[in-house]
Amino acid sequence: MTIKKWIPPTAQEIKQLREVTGFTQAKTAHLCRIGLKTYQKWEQGDASPSQSAWTIYTFELRAQKIGFQSLDNLMDFLEQKHST
């Protein structure tokens, strides 16, 4: 199995995605499970997201896109569905 090399998004891509979602920097940081200052460094190009933080964020966006308030809500729904 080949593992793709992680290429983090650019500062411009990070900011652009946040603006498209309409989220504040604080809300986006929360969804990424990171601190606000860390997120601000991403947008300024002073740091890059880890693959895990970025993956969590994209999963959060996908959960909201299909109608769940958060990834946690989606996971709760799936656990309840599986247990019945």
From TrEMBL:
Residues 14-52 form the HTH cro/C1-type domain. SUPFAM superfamilies: lambda repressor-like DNA-binding domains (SSF47413). This is Helix-turn-helix domain-containing protein. It comes from Acinetobacter tibetensis. PROSITE patterns: HTH_CROC1. GO terms for molecular function: DNA binding. It comes from the Bacteria.
